[in-house]
Amino acid sequence: MTRPDPRAEAAAVFNRVAFGYDNPAMRFPPFCADRLIVRLNPARGAKILDVAAGTGVVSMAAAQAVGNEGRVMAIDLAENMLDRLQEKIVKFGIPNIDLHVMDASVLEFRRGYFDHVVCSFGIFFLPDMAAGLQEWMRVTKPGGRVLFTVFGKQAFQPMMEMFIRRMERYGASVPDRQAPLADPESCLKLLNDAGLENSEVHAEQLGYHLKDEEQWWEVVWNSAMRGWVEKIPSDRLDSFRAEHLAEVRTLMGEQGLWLNVETLFAGGTKPSSV
Ligand SMILES: C[S@@+](CC[C@H](N)C(=O)[O-])C[C@H]1O[C@@H](n2cnc3c(N)ncnc32)[C@H](O)[C@@H]1O
Questions:
Q1: Which domain holds residue 256?
Q2: How many structural domains comprise the chain?
């Protein structure tokens, strides 16, 4: 049996997730995006590529930072995600973001076209992250920066562990997709092996309180986790959800349910000699 193409799988899940991705329980993508662009601190007028842009949280922060004389290119494989960004562009009259459906590993741009390349919570979807990073470097100007975010090891714990154990009881498994990059050393190695200079990785302990376990389910259902949970046969999904949420409810504190969003901000500079 041929294995499904991981890119097609990711695009299909995010095309379903797109309509709920910006829901109130999923507050972390916008605030991580803002922090990423603060770290990048691009000059006004800069040209930026936002890889795996999704509904555009990074693109919008970047567009504001570079001003109307700058330009942001948002690319993603999931058309429905980019459609949400297009709605925001129209709603807020944002003049300097362009959108393209495009694979993060095969960029249709010439060498050195962008001042900087950024990617938030997208690199771990690439079947070959090192090759992807090389491609991002190719389109970056010498001296430009390539930055990405990934989740740290404690992100979404302890709920994630409960989720995985419950999935196993239902005969479904969760791919350990983020593990290769979940610690700063692995991120640093990836950056250095790619040939980036002045590589840095900063771990930030971010997070917030969800109102209750139902909001946790909003996170599950409106993120890549949806693709995993949909592996459970539909006639058993309701009982999985009920059992999992009953377990998660035991974690509730006075302020609600803590959503740990430990995030690693990683990046480096393209050498001027490349
Ligand atoms: C978790 S979302 C992150 C979206 C956005 N960067 C953010 O911070 O909210 C991951 C995104 O990666 C996209 N994606 C996954 N694999 C991709 C690939 N090979 N090329 C382009 N986009 C991809 C998905 O469609 C999805 O929109």
A1: 6-269
A2: 1
Residue 1 belongs to a domain: no
Q: Give me the residues of the chain with pLDDT under 50, please.
A: none
Which residue has tokens 């004389």?
69
Atom of ligand 1 nearest to the CA of 126: 19
| β partners of residue 174 | none
| C-beta 245 within 6 A of ligand 1 | no
The per-residue b/e assignment along 175-194, b for 16 or more CB within 10 angstroms, e otherwise, is eebbeebbbbebbbbbbeeb
Q: What is the pLDDT of residue 175?
A: 75
| Amino acid type, 71 | R
Position 132 scores a pLDDT of 97
- Please tell me the predicted confidence (pLDDT) of residue 2: 62
φ, ψ of residue 140 to 5 degrees: the values are -95, 140
Give the pLDDT of residue 273. 73
CA of 187 to the centre of ligand 1 (A): 18
> pTM score > 0.90 for this model?
yes
Q: Whose CA is closest to atom 9 on ligand 1? A: 29
> Is residue 33 lining ligand 1, measured as CB closer than 6 Å?
yes
CATH number at 169 reads 3.40.50.150
Residue among 15, 16, 34, 81 whose CB has most ligand 1 atoms within 8 A, to mutate: 81
